[in-house]
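User: Batch of two.

Assistant: Item 1 of 2:
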Amino acid sequence: MRVFLTTDRLLLRRFTEDDLDDLVRLHGDPEVVRFLTGGRPTPRAHLRDQTLAKILAWYEQGPLSRWAAVELSSGDFIGWFALEPGGGHDLRQAELGYCLRAASWGRGYATEASRALIAKAFTDLGVHRVFAQTMAVNAASRRVMEKCGLTYLHTFHQHWDDPIPGTEHGEVEYELLRADWTRLVGPGGGGLGS
């Protein structure tokens, strides 16, 4: 098992092909994928041949990727977190992402792991900008971004062949620059409270 980082309650590790069943369950829950697919499950073949294949390839290309999130107390897979290459292959910016089982919602896991990933991005990975995007109507995800110190940048609209409910309100982008993060966390790195 290749551990990327740990927090007080979570371990983020590299995905393996053995994680496919967990990904299928996660992306098969209509609540979980409401803002990703409108609640439609992602087919197993797509998760195996495209999603998981892309994640595994990223590990060979550099430090930015997506990691399986495991609850330390139980050892259970609870979802994934990502710092993916942003703006093409520009490794100076990373897109923060997360997707958690509904049973893990409301426990602060998304904020906890996202803050740890942001700190690692700025201190160890040479990233200058972390950004995140979600549907404008995804209030829970927007709250996580704000708790992590990201600030609202803009709302934008994309064309979708098969739009899901809420698409008409657009997508939002939040960002945090390394210089701003340094000011937020202070000298000891612990300035972001919950």
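Item 2 of 2:
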Amino acid sequence: MTEVTYYTQDGLDRLKEELHHMKTTGRQQISKAIAEARDKGDLSENAEYDAAKEAQGLHEAKIAKLATTLSTARLIDESKLDTSKVLALSIVKIKNVKNGATMSYQLVAESEADLKTGKISVKSPIAKGLLGKSVGDKIEIQVPAGMIEFEILEITR
């Protein structure tokens, strides 16, 4: 059984666009590579043909995985979400109690995560520690660098 994942409208649109691109342009490019390799002669000793066929198999596997992800994807209506506690799609401003550094993260689906834009996966250690907590809560979260204590300063959408 596959796990349901929650997405923003933007994230869901990007997934659909990627799948469409892979099914159209991606397949055309691989078919062209196979045809070019086939034209080079004996297929039994044609490494280029073998590589193109392998690339086709990997591409089709990626399409199948993306289609499965889309079939279990659910769109979250952000306007109806509770801001009193941290949930998926929450934007959370936290402070590192030890050094006073503050940071903001939005908790998103794994495929939407992008640390450069402040989006972290709900499956990450920090997000798991924040889920269900409220403003003012202090929590200790185990991260690769060790145990860090955070205080939740603000929760928005």
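The mean pLDDT is 87.
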